[in-house]
Amino acid sequence: MKKLLVVLLPSLLAGCSYYNNLVERMHTDKLEYQCDEKPLTVSLNNTRQEVSFIYNDKSLRLKQGLSASGARYTDGIYVFWSKGDTADVYEKDRVVLHNCQLQNPRR
């Protein structure tokens, strides 16, 4: 019985991990933007209410914050703010990616 448990337990844990990763991917959308400065790929995870993207070789993960309009995500330094098919990225209140247009938006 103990041998069977030793063999099955890692398989069960691996299966749970695989399932969690699968569910996570199902709730994450890849959004492609073309900004004035350069392209931007954003991963939007609705379940976690966060976005992640790479800016200046830094991997950023921003949590959803308060917004009067649109969707605003921040880590206290960087802000990703989207409204409709457009977005901007700020670093310490300075726009660093401006006029980002969503490519192939869903209708």
TrEMBL record:
Name of the protein described by the UniProt record: Lysozyme inhibitor
Q: Which InterPro entries match?
A: MliC (IPR018660), MliC_sf (IPR036328)
Which residue positions does the secretion signal occupy? 1-19
Q: Tell me where in this chain the C-type lysozyme inhibitor domain is found.
A: 33-94
Species annotation: Franconibacter pulveris
Keywords, alphabetical: Lipoprotein, Membrane, Palmitate, Signal
Transmembrane regions listed in the UniProt entry: none
Any Pfam family hit: MliC
SUPFAM superfamilies noted in UniProt: YdhA-like
